[in-house]
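New here. Invent one.

***
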Amino acid sequence: MLSKRLHDAGFRGWHFHSGAVGSIGLCIGLWIRAKTVDQDERGNAERRALFVGLWPPMFWLIGDTIERWEQRRRLPWRR
């Protein structure tokens, strides 16, 4: 049901796939930045990078679910 609501709101699978790739880039950027901060703030910066690193699988799976819903909707014998 969530995939139908997201699709009706205008989201497509590629939106979430792009978000997954973008969050990988953000995670790498945050990880590199964590290596440049002083020792007192490094732990917090590394945890932030790891937290963002958990997002890509979620976004990718939501995108796959929306694409499957779109394909199921296009089949003429399923209407």
